Amino acid sequence: MRAPHSPPGEPVVGNAMRFARSPFDVLDTLAASYREGVVHLSGMVGPGIYVVLDPALVQRVLVDDHARYRKPQLRPELVDPLIGEGLLTSEGDLWKRQRTTLQPAFFTSRLRGFGDTIVDFTRATTDGWADGSTVDVHRELGVLTVRIIARLLLGVDLSRADAVDVAEAMEQVGETLALSPGNVVRPPWLQTPPPRTYRQAIRELEDVTARVTAMHEPEGDDVLSLLRRAVDADPDGFPDDELRDQVMTMLLAGHETTALTLTYALFLLSENPDARAELHREVDDVVDGAPTWADLAALDYTERVVHETLRVLPPVWAVFREPLVDARLGEYRIPEGAPMMLPQWALHRSGRHWDAPRTFDPDRWRGTKPAETPAYFPFGAGPRACIGRQLAIVEAKLILATVFAEWDVEVLVDDLPRRAAITMQPTEPVPARVHRR
């Protein structure tokens, strides 16, 4: 075994400052310049970070040898107050209990009943648009997906005002969690306390969570009902804050990746008018009035648009692991506890794995199964893959079809400045002109 190659860095801080300033540029450079399966980015403190650039090694970490790795505790002083030991962050037996408890809420048989709800909420959103007006589609889609997730997974009808509070709080969360030279270079004991605005955002999210829990009727098969029954049956098997942590997790993770996927889809479709026209043609051919669950199979181009968006601009830009003991990954040695990055951004956009990788081309997915494409893992992979990945695709397809059945949407900016937080987020509003068809 050998140590992975380290790109040249700056004195003392190594690669840390450049990565903190321009993470996506650094990942692009690594993917284009290094043929090694693992590259080591050095930093001022600790072991640096090991970037996995070979799809076969990603498969090894996330699937084949998943039990030898765990999720690292990144910025626990910020993440713990936000989602505690929810499904995204828990480990070991607690995670297994949570996953087993929540999985029935995501069964296909249950998803079949979601179509009308997704369409109805989407139409309620677009009913507020004026023909020829300009809207911030990122904000609109964020509020929409919060309300959808609250209804489908938590069993409550969240007011638009509460959904706006969640969306606004999430913007502050993203700003605080974003990579910066300070939080990358400083050791944990020198990190600054969470800013007042972040603490206020968490309080607002907790207020919404409390209202959701108070409104909920625990009689169904939604996430909150399943959790309440499980906690009542085994109170010692779950943390005291189980309900709070899972509601926070579902409100945040359950809506944000879908809202970002749709925002980026509208941006890419605006940059590629032929693709936008093809999407309109398919929706016109398939949809009679409003899309239904029965239409999903025929919305093939729409699904290709979703997958190509997730490839070109992946909301989850990287997943992270650390080995439980010294690990051998291919020919490389990774020390116990060393942070590892498995970057969707780099692998989804690498010329080693894709033809014309920066080109938005939904037709590249014609006859291709995403699940069998090694360099494509927008929802992670293996046992810790996103529990809601099927729902996310269904929701994105139905929202796109509902919008494009009645509207033409053109994003008015030719660039989207983005930050690398837990997800890849726009740093500015995303204005779009909407025209009723």
Structural description of this entry:
The protein is α+β, with helices and mostly antiparallel strands. It folds into two domains: 1-74 and 317-377, Uridine Diphospho-n-acetylenolpyruvylglucosamine Reductase, domain 2 (2-Layer Sandwich), CATH 3.30.43; 75-316 and 378-436, Cytochrome P450 (Cytochrome p450, Orthogonal Bundle). It has 17 helices and twelve strands. A hairpin with a 7-residue loop joins strand 1 and strand 2. Helix 7 (115-126) packs antiparallel against helix 8 (137-154), helix 12 packs antiparallel against helix 13 and helix 15 packs across helix 17. The radius of gyration is 21 Å and the shape is globular. The mean pLDDT is 92.
CATH architecture of the largest domain: Orthogonal Bundle
Question: Sheet bearing the most strands, described?
Answer: 5 strands, mixed
So what's the overall shape? globular
| End-to-end C-alpha gap | 61 Å
What count of structural domains?
2
What is the count of β-strands?
A: 12
Count, helices = 17
The CATH topology label of the largest domain is Cytochrome p450
Q: Catalogue the unreliable spans.
A: none
- In round numbers, the mean pLDDT is 92
Class of the largest domain, according to the CATH hierarchy? Mainly Alpha
Structural class by secondary-structure content? alpha+beta
Query: What is the share of helical residues?
Result: 40-55%
CATH homologous superfamily heading of the largest domain: Cytochrome P450
Give the oligomeric state of the chains in this entry, treating copies of one chain as homo and distinct chains as hetero: single chain
Radius of gyration (Å): 21 Å
- Taken as a percent bin, the fraction of beta residues is 5-15%
Numbering strands along the chain, what is their spatial order in the largest sheet? 1-2-8-5-3
User: From N to C, what is the helix and strand string?
Assistant: HHEEHEHHHHEHHHHHHHHEEEEHHEEEE
